[in-house]
Amino acid sequence: VKGVILFVTIGIIVVLLFIAYIWVSGGSGQASAPLVTPELILQPDDSRRVFAIDSTQSEARFLIDEVLLGEPTTVIGRTHEVAGELLIDFESPGNTQLGAIVVNVGTLQTDNELRNRALRGQILQANNPEYEIATFVPVELLNFPDEIQIGNTINFQINGTLNLHGFNQDIVFDVSLTVLSNTQIEGLASASVQYTDFNITIPESAGVANVSDDVRLEFEFTLS
Q: Rounded to two decimals, what is the model's pTM?
């Protein structure tokens, strides 16, 4: 009996130490510095207009499926720490240009603080300055319309390269965009990736099973 009690006690101590390690190594989840993106420059007599992401009204998020305590669950991580610019040409839409989009993944929040800290410290390792920022660099706008009218919603794709956790992966975002006015645009971009393509591993956790390999990335944005 004493041996069983000792074994259980050691097990509890190990679990508590592991939780403490996750908690401490996960950090505060605060951005280490403001986000910076390369500015898109208007040329002389340029007919385009500059729109910048309004971070207060925009959200980058991931969605991944798992089984938590026997129940199918979709984990959602969210952050408003996003930045980027768009040069849009209402007269000649083919001249439209999207700049790099940056996201501070170290500020992602789910519905569980312990999960948040494991996400930052062990999974994304976002406390490492090299991994704190994810960057999507657009290469090409696909199926972009020849005409843009205020009030209309347009659908197209963005082909580009996502740098996450120190690895690059070519991906295509599906985009739905609505031009609300001459000064405001809103929309949603989404794509699916596999986290293993970025050399990310998800450690085993008690009560968690069947974590999907696929991750849905979504960016709900307002530009002004």
A: 0.86
